[in-house]
Amino acid sequence: xxxxxxxxxxxxxxxxxxxxxxxxxxxxxxxxxxxxxxxxxxxxxxxxxxxxxxxxxxxxxxxxxxxxxxxxxxxxxxxxxxxxxxxxxxxxxxxxxxxxxxxxxxxxxxxxxxxxxxxxxxxxxxxxxxxxxxxxxxxxxxxxxxxxxxxxxxxxxxxxxxxxxxxxxxxxxxxxxxxxxxxxxxxxxxxxxxxxxxxxxxxxxxxxxxxxxxxxxxxxxxxxxxxxxxxxxxxxxxxxxxxxxxxxxxxxxxxxxxxxxxxxxxx
Length: 267
What we know:
The protein is an alpha/beta fold. The protein has helices at residues 3-14, 26-38, 47-62, 75-78, 124-132, 134-147, 183-202, 222-239, 253-265; strands at residues 67-68, 90-94, 100-101, 104-108, 156-160, 168-172, 207-210, 245-250. Strands 2-8-7-4-6-5 form a six-stranded mixed β-sheet, with helices on both faces. A hairpin with a 7-residue loop joins strand 5 (156-160) and strand 6 (168-172). It is globular, with a radius of gyration of 19 Å.
């Protein structure tokens, strides 16, 4: 039995389900595995399971295009005429954040702090927990039990990254826009980035990558977010020489164009 077949059998058996016919294609198997781990509560799990999962996820990682910190060019190279003062320490990158080999990536989490439970959902929270493995949810559970309440908006905490190429994951919750954007929403988004950067400094993290927090299902307008984020990060770096690089990672062409335009237009 190979690793993923073992994992599927384990996950189905612990739910008391009859072992269904496992597909032959690896991608189909992985999607089944992903749905099972996405919906799994953070109960204890066997060391043998974790060992098999680590092997399988490392094999999956070997098939993905990992992007190294040294390959990511800062704004002083990509946008030499930018208005940003710390352009040598800020980068804009269109990529899948789960493929970055950096000190830490930031997870746009929810207030439960345990990852996305929707099977195969295409949010960053789901992807990070999927490719890290179930040990990440178990560590998040330990943190949430210590604080004994939901994670407040803008608060952040740090965990290991397990099978991701980064070393750490900084989990934070951005503001949810209910109707119209308010000054309070803008303040909370700024605090979300500041608190995450504070976590990086506390853990001696030199290079940290952010996704576009709150601009997806949380409905924060992308143009407003880009202005806030660039200003906050640039100002933070003026006071913190410890941080060597902050990478603003976007997934879509639309997100890239929003940041790119603002970087240029305010020169």
